[in-house]
Description:
The protein contains ten helices and 32 strands. The protein is α/β, with parallel strands linked by helices. A ten-stranded parallel beta sheet has the order 1-2-5-8-13-18-21-24-27-30. Helix 4 (88-94) links the parallel strand 1 (82-85) and strand 2 (109-113). The relative contact order is 0.12. The model is unreliable at 1-43 (pLDDT under 50).
Amino acid sequence: MRRLAAAAASTIIALTVLPTAALAQPSHDTDAPAGSHRERDARGALSPLARQLGRQALPAGDGWAAAGPGTTGGSAATAEQIHVVSSRAELVAALGGDNATNATNATAKIVYVRGDIDGFESADGRLLDCADLADPGYSLQEYLAAYDPAVWGRVAPSGPLEEARVRSVTNQTRQTQINVGPNTTIIGLRDARLTGLTLMIDRATNVIVRNITFDDARDCFPAWSPTDGEAGNWNSQYDLVSVRRSENVWIDHNTFTDGDNPDSAQPVHFGRPHQVHDGALDITHTASLVTVSWNRFSGRDKLMLIGSSNTVGPDVGRLNVTLHHNFFDGGLQRLPRVRFGQVDVYNNAYRLGGDGFQYAIGVGVQSAVHAENNHFTLDADVSAADLLYDWGGTAITTRGNWVSSAGAPSRPVDLVAAYNAGHDPDLSPDAGWTPTLRHGPVLPAPLVPLLVRPLAGADRLPL
């Protein structure tokens, strides 16, 4: 076993972590005018290996994002379109110059993130807070007094205070949502962190995001939804990364976390947690051809929503996503939750349990999940029967998955059979398709945590 693990580790590092000449794109170092100020600044800040990784494309066959034209991001960028940024203003400028229109900027570009960039940073470098973004007509205390179900009833908030909250959300979106256009690579240098912002990839084809810690995309103005569930819920708007209406997107070697501001530490209003976070990485609104690889999702509630509505319509035939070699560490739900798409979930490591755990893989309307050779490490309060949840789906293929419960040795488990033994109606064990887009070996499940835990997440690439 030890020899097999060592051999598998060498293979994975060679194929996934180190930038080989076959995967890296040719250098464009000679394209810039001699003596270009921007060229000198960018190159002076980057090592040769960092420049090579910045031009690295998704390997052929590496999940759904390799379909069609594949995913090359900003690999064709000229020297003038290579940027090193360390502030929100510099990030917006590198992505095209105007956050309102950057989503349509299709110029090939490579953006290296240095240090910590805060989405609440103003143009003059001052850090804003929620009070700075609030509409003059909004106050949380007044909102709580007005829409307390004991006073207002169990109907949706309306009127001037709710309208002021919506205007406040508009202010925050303008400030903390950073829009990304097509043909873009965003890659972090050592210890790169994007804090308090949403990286929005909307209608943007051919995007690569790598080696960044995404931290605390908090919503200053959550909405009270009194009919969401039996007791109502507070709902937030902002994901750490959101992929919408886009194709050929590669999300690789990132870390997603709420940092020191978890939802578990939020106050309770109307008997429900005042939740200030939405998803870690949501893939919705007809997005498709996405590969999510070697990421670490740490200690969050909602992690990954694939498909945002049960309505049969434009999402049909879309939402095709591959998840491989990710480490889901302590998430409570949506690991992922899937509607409609053909989603390949293989060689992922899960460590799950604790208060509030709900499920790992959500089987939603017309979803077709293929879950193969994943490894689940579970606390004593979670069983294999808890790993799937039926959100209106009918089938999921599960093969070669192993579970270790409460410190016991790992053993193979048929996840569908475990679910069906304790739930009705049964799920079918055949999702109706077999993945073909995979790069490198599919590891036996017992090896997955040995490799994925130390290698997944930001700061594992040699930058």
